[in-house]
Amino acid sequence: MQSRKKELIKKLKLEPHPEGGYFAEVYRSDGVINNETGDFPDGRNFSTSIYYLLGSDDISKLHRIKSDELWHHYEGSSITIHIIHPGGKYEKQRLGKDLEDEQFPQQTVPAGTWFGVTVDDPDSYVLCGCTVAPGFDFQDFEMADKQTMLDAYPQHQKIINSLIP
Ligand code: GUN
Q1: pLDDT of residue 37 exceeding 80
Q2: What spacing in Å lies between the alpha carbon of 50 and ligand 1's midpoint?
Q3: pTM of the predicted protein model
């Protein structure tokens, strides 16, 4: 599994992502949406897409972005996407191909929710795709602060501690 992970990182030219894991952008639309009165006052590409790889020994740490994010499963282990909604509801989504095990090949993480990801199988990895519209910009990306999250959502202490090591 480690050799396949290394091969994918090399072949797809993946780089470390600040949230954990590895990524490469594969699509950024030429078109730009202007949204002067909304969340994107200086405009954003219509849509962007990345390859994203996460190993069993990595986690995608708790973060949020301003667009809905569509996750697509390509190969490897299933993963669990842990979501904390602004109102405090915790939701778990499984991304994978085993439909008999409550996994789905595509999942949607709603804009503005806090989320992090863990790989389900030990000694494994996942390769997936993440598509956002309006397109991704690091200005719209925020890593969660542990103490702020614990103060806001004390009922989720365990999951917060595991997703912000
Ligand atoms: N481009 C750089 N980072 C990201 C990310 O976390 N998600 C998406 N969809 N695109 C990105």
Answers
A1: no
A2: 6
A3: 0.96
